[in-house]
Amino acid sequence: MMFDLSDALNGLLGGLMIGLAAALFLLANGRIAGISGIAVSMATAAVTRRRLESAAFVAGLILAPLAYAALAGPVEIGVTPSVPLLLAAGLLVGIGTRIGNGCTSGHGVCGLSRLSRRSMVATATFMAVAVLVAGLAPLVIGG
Question: Does the pTM exceed 0.70?
């Protein structure tokens, strides 16, 4: 695999945009832009301004890639066709976000930038597990 400067610049631009969005969300709403917390507040809160803001945030997560694809062309992604594997992965992610009191966006983006010790431990843990799973998955499921 060769180094591609355009990929690196796209990653840098994407990271800057995520950081800026998280900072603006915190400044405008006084809340952390953790996706799992936003999704829970959207699903459980009474119909209030907070729930509407959460719904708009989640809608943006869905619509932004569609808008990008419409403007820049389709993006190639790989997703397993195995429905049981997708369901198991989603269930494990959901359980992990409940146990860890947040997800990668809440801990990895917002928590680390605020120097939260809990987020540092959570991020180190999910990164270590991700490396382990990425290394073991090909041995377990083939590929």
Answer: no
